Amino acid sequence: MSLCGQNCTAEDDFPSTRVVDAVTKERTMAVPKKKTSKSKTRSRRASAWKLQTPPRSICPRCGNAKTPHTVCGSCGWYKDRVVVDV
After folding, report:
1. What's the rounded Cα separation, in Å, for the pair 13 and 15?
2. Which residue from 36, 82, 31, 33 is spatially nearest to 59, judged by alpha carbons?
3. Contact 76, 69 (CB under 8 A)
4. Among 12, 39, 46, 52, which one is least packed by beta carbons within 10 Å?
């Protein structure tokens, strides 16, 4: 008679080994087949470095494009008053 108390095969004598095998199968991770080249790694990292166009607003006095919260370069106004003589 086997250790499991029933008519079991030799593999079933120790049911705890089946639990250990199931746990190790769950914890295995994917492994890359080949090394990732430096250029591939750097190009992937560089994709987050893209520059965005700066925001633009319109000067309420002259109507030219300017960056927000700065003095207008064409007329010198900021927040409804003359800041720079142009």
Report:
1. 6
2. 82
3. no
4. 52
